[in-house]
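hiii, so i know i said id send this last week but things got crazy w the move. better late than never?? heres the sequnce for the chain we talked about at the cafe, plus the structure i predicted for it. fair warning i was half asleep when i ran it
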Amino acid sequence: MAAQIIPGKEIASKIKEYVKNEVDKLKEKGIFPKLVAVQVGENPASEVYVKQQKKNCEKVGISYELKQLPKDTDEEKLISFINSLNNDDSVTGIILQLPLPEGIDVRKVQSTISPFKDVEGVNPANMGWIIYGRPVLAPCTALAVKELIEYTKVDLYGKEVVMVGHSDIVGKPVSLLLLDKFATVSVCHIGTSDAGMLETHVRRAEILIVAVGKANLIPGDWIKEGAIVIDVGINRVGDKIVGDVEFESAKEKASWITPVPGGVGPVTTAMLLKNVVESVKISRKEK
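okay and structure toks below
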């Protein structure tokens, strides 16, 4: 029996509806959420992404502004600029557009964003709260993965979860978020693959999450019968966009699976908007 498709666009739409309602409530109280994106130099690759951010924010009533700094901006000046945004009460959320020019330490700059305005959840303080099982503002893609899994109504307690990929913004936070639900989580990476153990881990996964960025990395026949498959990967192959999992063959074995595109992507966007609203609420509690 073919898998049921987890409708990312539908889930995202409901989250955006919630966000719009929350923004309306805040505005009634005289609070106007504002997201500021910081970009150093011109980057054609992020231009489309920036336009999409602005469009999505405006749809739910969030003000959006792009601050574009000169390409020769050094680390010290960038940090100083971010601190000015941290101290600006009209700014409720800050997002740093990547990549940054060579010579700038991305993690150092991200760590200077106020934890209360860090809508991408990349400040070390926000990462730390995930470890304590009390996520405040977590990475948007990690939250999206959790949201998609919850849609299936699966009880995570004791489930064998395999996370393929161990990035700071997906693999690591996802594993911690699910660990907090008492799932048994295994994290696979290049070392797992080099040791010839990736297939072994994937085959026993009751819930499989793949976030590597390599087209069709996971063959469909590796999927455990009845597994839930969350494919975070977005890869261009010819004129098609595909995920990290062989979709057509995987859906014949899985019980639930996310499509690519239309799965994790839309929900990640929606979680960013939700984080903007959450950042406002958190900031007000701290004052």
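btw The chain has two domains: 30-116, 138-265. thought thatd interest u
miss u guys!!
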